[in-house]
Amino acid sequence: MRSCRRLAADRRQAPSQACPPAIYLHSSYNSPVKRRTTTTEGRNPRSRGLDLKSTQGMLRVINREDARVSRAVAREIPAIARAVERIAEALRSGGRLIYVGAGTSGRLAVLDASECPPTFGVPARMVQGVIAGGRRALVRAVEGAEDDFSQGARDVAQKKISAKDVVVGLTASGSTPYVLGALRYAKKRGATTVGVACNSGTAIERVARITLVLDVGPEVIAGSTRMKAGTAQKMVLNMLSTAAMVRLGYVYDNWMINVALTNKKLRRRGLRILEEASGASVAAVARAARQARHDLRAALVMLKAGVSAPEARKLLKAAHGDLRTALGQRRSRKRISKFEARKRGDGKIPD
């Protein structure tokens, strides 16, 4: 980082003249040079005259633009897969998945993190969300919070980040100072860093180890990144957390086999899952669930392997919680071409 005196000299200023904070605090991310307009801030030619259209016409424009989102996400699946593999590895080793974002990105981050415990039955510490401005930013916009690079680092530091963790920074622009500060700190701590942005060639690509660029194009309303950019980020968050949990064995076939049975609806769902997955009678399923103390994975092992509850738990423990392994069922390993392996950059064959 260059000193204030050096910057002043560069700009032909007197040394005593105050340097603008935006220039000298984090000059690598806040350049004094005028930036080009990012794609997400540009004007969308396909939505011009939006306010002159009928309600249905306006909705069709929005719907057509939303259709572009899934294609943008699909183009990044190889990079998303690399992130998922690293996340699963980290969680399996006792690490955590930490999301960081500001505004819409931050709210989506907290939303995905908060839904993992009830969906997959995992502890709340495993997947966490950090939003610029703290809890109040979840219900009321705290727009200025995203500009604080140092606060991003401080907020992540409170999570006691280590090399075991994966930190995912979400920023539609790709240059939100709060997110960059958080990722820079996480990187220094040895954590794996993943950047999710909707513009290419931005600062986040210089900080993140894995970068996902979701090129959704300009928004229907110029700059309103809560729309396509937000939808794209939510889709990626769904993929990251869901695929990682599948890899950890918290999903059997396509059932939420580790769902937290916290209310009547979920308890009914749990029994239905056991009945469908095991093919056993309603009475046998209810008995197994009761003996397993409503641990669906243990109950399923009991029903399919014909063992007692203590034996089912031993099998699961020996399999590190992987239900397929506990049942003696092997997952198939998909072969990929040499070209795909080179494109992945690590030559590994994914599960």
What does this structure look like?
48% of the residues lie in helices and 7% in strands. It has helices spanning 4-10, 21-24, 55-75, 77-92, 103-120, 149-157, 177-188, 204-207, 228-247, 264-278, 282-291, 296-305, 309-318, 323-326, 338-344; strands at 97-101, 127-131, 166-170, 192-197, 210-213. It folds into 3 domains: 7-36, no CATH class; 55-247, Glucose-6-phosphate isomerase like protein, domain 1 (Rossmann fold, 3-Layer(aba) Sandwich), CATH 3.40.50.10490; 250-351, Helicase, Ruva Protein, domain 3. It has a 5-stranded parallel β-sheet, with helices on both faces. Helix 10 (264-278) packs parallel to helix 12 (296-305). It contains 15 helices and 5 strands. The protein is globular, with a radius of gyration of 24 Å. It is an alpha/beta fold.
Given helix and strand content, the structural type is alpha/beta
Query: In what range is the share of β-strand residues?
Result: 5-15%
Radius of gyration: 24 Å
User: Regarding CATH, which class of the largest domain?
Assistant: Alpha Beta
- CATH third-level topology of the largest domain: Rossmann fold
In the CATH hierarchy, the architecture of the largest domain is 3-Layer(aba) Sandwich
Arrangement of strands in the largest sheet: 2-1-3-4-5
**What would you call the shape?**
globular
The tally of structural domains comes to: 3
Question: Which blocks of ≥5 consecutive residues have pLDDT under 50?
Answer: 1-34, 333-351
- CATH H-tier superfamily of the largest domain: Glucose-6-phosphate isomerase like protein, domain 1
Extended strand count: 5
Tally of helical segments: 15
